Amino acid sequence: MHTFTATALKLPRPYLVQWMDDQNKNVLLNGHQISIEQYFSGIRERAQQLQNLVEKQVLFGIDVGNVETVLEQLLLKAADSSRIPILLVDSDRKGNPQSRTFLVQLKQQGHLFDATTGLFDPTKTKPWLDLVLHTMQDLHSLVHVTQGLPGRGTEDHALNLSDILYNPDEQAIGIAPQVRKTEDSKSIFRQLSRLVSRLLFIMLRIIRPVELLAVVGCKIVPDTAQSQVMEMYQTKVWVVGGREMTSKMFSKDLAAWSRQGPNLPGLDFDMGLKLYRHFAVALDRKLLGGLMSDPFFDIGDYQAGRVKTTSHRSYAVQKGWHPTEGWKLQIQKSEDWRKMLGLS
Q: Three-state DSSP class for 129?
């Protein structure tokens, strides 16, 4: 059985991609034609739409200040000066002032709460929770298609808040998932744009604590599951509506995201995670070129009997933001990807 599997894996796969012109303006993906320029334009449009949705509807137009300044302040407080305390409480245990201020403004302006009891009003809160769910689904899709070459849905499902780092050079959040496909962890870093970074920070740092209170207050989850849900909200990135977002949900959400309202320009079919991986690789190979050198090999580490990723992770670790050569190249890849999309 093992021999058969190994042989099958070596067989060539059926082709899914065909570029249709020398200018790389159109591509066939699994028999569907995609206009590259229109697709990129659609991504930028969706990013702006999501920003407007978050600011005007999820936040009710409440000003949450300069996110980049808040990130820098949190960075100074963090014990590890690259990992930021993004949720619920700061390292000084004085709470989350950004979310607390938002909560006060909600009450003062008559949003979500019953004016008489001071408790969550389900008639106001449940539509807002539905909006938060829709926003997190769209945000995952936006992160997935703008970060560079994405991982699998199972990787995103396992993503922890501790895997989110602040890159002071870019003044934006990056994602460094702990991925193990062999005996050694893969050293992965995907840099987000400032726009996407801002939206992710707002949803996790400012909205999530209020959403958690509302989920509990409106009995969205049973009392017996509240401790489990609270733990989930304080550890995982992709959690909403009292439950974790799964790989199947991510794929379904990405397909729906490509078809909601008017379709993404240039796209006339559902593209879930599996098809998107092929599409992303096709774009990278044709428009950005592949990586020719190996940033993960170092002769000194080889001589010492370890791989370069293990060396940087475990030996002579320095305080502060000191990206490895592999990370620097991946940050550059994310930047090239954003330039390709025309996204700041």
A: helix
